[in-house]
């Protein structure tokens, strides 16, 4: 279920808006923003509205963004927004659907992360899973017992393509399947980074940087989008760049 809300975003007429995904776009080790990119972002931030939009919940974005304490954030693939230091859940997963998810978790003994407004429920027995270095790395929240209400996002691990297809048939949720790592990401119906961004900036124009399928709408609807080594965005306004070109491309926006 999506809860539409329009946020007040002052000063957009005199500053450009630039939106950045995190992991794989400006963060390459799961822990920090690339140092050269960070230096460039700090300069850009003085003359632009920078918004960060990530698949991470806002809780897990914060350790990467200690230099950007006042910036608007979009987390959980658009399921939550931090604006003016207030976190709002913009969509949540239908409770009946969550009952099916929980049953499947127990039936197949799946590893999972279930995010709520701030706390989470998680079981990850595979200690090689790279998401462990991102999950509440700053110890800001609690790993609580599973519940089926006010769920913003679910990640299920070791999911077959067939099982992912079963989940995707449900019209009450948004589903992204990362086949290369057998990871299924579930958010509320209509949850998307671009749609969340629209709630923050309205019809104002923006530039965007991203690197994955959850950035496609964000990039396609930008004045100019930059896709970092992700060649599957089919749009004339989207340019494919390498990781090595991210910093120099950001510098082109410094005016």
For this entry, give a set of tags.
255 residues; alpha/beta; Rossmann fold; Hypothetical Protein, Haloacid Dehalogenase-like Hydrolase, Chain: A, domain 2; 2 domains; eight-stranded mixed β-sheet; 13 strands; 22% helix; phosphatase activity
Structural description of this entry:
The structure is a single chain. By secondary structure, the chain is of the alpha/beta class. The protein folds into two domains: 17-90 and 192-253, HAD superfamily/HAD-like (Rossmann fold, 3-Layer(aba) Sandwich); 95-188, Hypothetical Protein, Haloacid Dehalogenase-like Hydrolase, Chain: A, domain 2 (2-Layer Sandwich), CATH 3.30.1240.10. 22% of the residues lie in helices and 24% in strands. The chain is built from seven helices and 13 strands. It has helices at residues 35-45, 58-61, 95-108, 161-168, 193-201, 216-220, 246-251, and strands at residues 16-20, 48-53, 73-75, 80-83, 86-89, 112-115, 120-123, 153-157, 173-178, 183-188, 207-210, 224-228, 238-241. It has an eight-stranded mixed sheet with strand order 5-4-3-2-1-11-12-13, with helices on both faces. Helix 6 (216-220) links the parallel strand 11 and strand 12. The longest helix has 14 residues, at 95-108. The termini are far apart.
Short précis:
The protein has helices at residues 35-45, 58-61, 95-108, 161-168, 193-201, 216-220, 246-251; strands at 16-20, 48-53, 73-75, 80-83, 86-89, 112-115, 120-123, 153-157, 173-178, 183-188, 207-210, 224-228, 238-241.
């Amino acid at each position: 279920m999506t809860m539409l809300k329009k946020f007040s975003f002052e000063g957009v007429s005199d500053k450009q808006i630039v939106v950045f995904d995190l992991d794989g776009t400006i963060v390459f080790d799961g822990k920090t923003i690339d140092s050269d990119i960070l230096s460039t972002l700090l300069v850009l931030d003085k003359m632009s509205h920078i918004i960060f939009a990530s698949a991470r919940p806002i809780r897990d974005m914060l350790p990467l963004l200690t230099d950007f304490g006042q910036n608007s954030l979009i987390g959980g693939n658009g399921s939550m927004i931090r604006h003016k230091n207030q976190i709002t859940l913009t969509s949540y997963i239908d409770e009946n659907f969550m009952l099916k998810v929980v049953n499947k978790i127990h039936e197949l003994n799946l590893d999972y992360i279930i995010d709520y407004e701030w706390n989470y429920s998680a079981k990850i027995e595979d200690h090689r899973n790279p998401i462990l270095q991102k999950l509440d790395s700053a110890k800001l929240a609690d790993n609580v017992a599973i519940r089926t209400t006010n769920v913003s996002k679910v990640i299920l691990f070791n999911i077959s393509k067939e099982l992912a297809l079963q989940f995707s048939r449900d019209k009450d949720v948004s589903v992204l399947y990362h086949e290369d790592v057998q990871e299924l990401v579930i958010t509320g119906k209509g949850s998307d980074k671009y749609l969340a961004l629209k709630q923050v900036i309205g019809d104002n124009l923006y530039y965007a940087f991203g690197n994955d399928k959850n950035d496609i709408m964000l990039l396609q609807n930008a004045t100019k989008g930059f896709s970092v080594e992700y060649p599957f965005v089919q749009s004339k306004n989207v340019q494919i760049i390498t990781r090595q070109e991210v910093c120099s491309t950001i510098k082109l926006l410094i005016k």
